[in-house]
Amino acid sequence: ELAYIREDDEGLKIGALTTIFTMKESDIIRQKYISVYEAAKNFAYLQIRNMATVGGNICRSSPSADMVPPLMAFDAEVKLVGAKGSRNVLLENFFRGPRENLLERELLTEIVVPKKEGKYGTAFGKMRRNSGDLAKVNCAVKIIVRDRTCEDIRIVLGAVAAKPIRAKNAEQAIKAKRIDDDAIETAAQKVIEDIAPITDVRSTSVYRTEVSKVLVRRLIKLAVERA
Q1: Cα–Cα distance measured from residue 123 to residue 110, given in angstroms and rounded to the nearest whole number
Q2: Of 159, 160, 183, whose CA–CA distance to 173 is shortest?
Q3: Inter-residue contact 151 to 174 (CB < 8 Å)
Q4: Whole-angstrom distance, CA of residue 79 vs CA of residue 97
Q5: Which three-class secondary structure state does DSSP give residue 178?
Q6: By C-alpha distance, which of 209, 201, 210 is closest to 161?
Q7: Would you say 53 and 66 are in contact if contact means Cβ atoms under 8 Å apart?
Q8: With CB atoms counted within 10 Å of each terminal CB, which end of the chain scores lower, N or C?
Q9: Which residues have C-beta within 8 Å of that of residue 207, sequence separation ≥ 6?
Q10: What is the pLDDT of residue 117?
Q11: Side-chain half-sphere exposure of 130, counting CA atoms within 13 A
């Protein structure tokens, strides 16, 4: 009963036990939430997509979790249920650090993406060592464009801090600005003020910093085209 994808007046609702493969195959997600589709499509290998669930990917609370950035970019909430009742928490506020989150003897049962009006563009990308590996860096962008001006934007990155983060300095650098190569480049350069990458077995902090700028630049451009 916790495996479903449906829409209602509140928006998109995804059961916590919905597999990544089911999300990849969903017409609703592929047509309306393309960055979420791209994250599911590029999630590990087929065998893992058949078993892994979106709730599991979130609750593991890995800084490199692929499903988190696109859902955060859509301002998704998670529904937490326990003995004291239920509560909805903004996904952005759910994580405390590596493998740490807000769960207190609770279950995550549902992800809710609030209904959005108007046109927007969104995109997801990641850098990795091979096709099935965890991300060295991943990133999702969602942008609302009106008259070639950025009306609103979300830029979310993973694997560059202790938890998935919104690049708010990069967002502010382009928000309300006319979208051109200079504005996009300014936002890409600003992202270094938002991240704190480390060196580990998958990559170095220097590489992650440079790739973050590259992904932000590429994905803003792609999201604008889709908008």
Answers
A1: 23
A2: 183
A3: no
A4: 19
A5: strand
A6: 209
A7: no
A8: N
A9: 136
A10: 80
A11: 2
Judge contact between 16 and 30, C-beta under 8 A.
no
Task: Locate 61 and state its tokens.
Answer: 């609370």
Q: In sequence order, which residues have a C-beta less than 8 Å from that of residue 146 and are 6 or more positions away?
A: none
8 A C-beta contact, residue 141 and residue 73:
yes
Tokens 């962008």 belong to 141
DSSP 29-50: HHHH-HHHHHHHHTSS-HHHHH
**Three-state DSSP class for residue 179:** coil
Tokens of 141: 């962008």
The alpha helices in the chain, defined as continuous H runs, are 20-25, 27-32, 34-41, 46-51, 54-59, 68-73, 168-174, 181-190, 205-226
Which amino acid makes up residue 94?
Answer: F
Alpha-carbon torsion 224, 133, 37, 91, what sign? Answer: negative
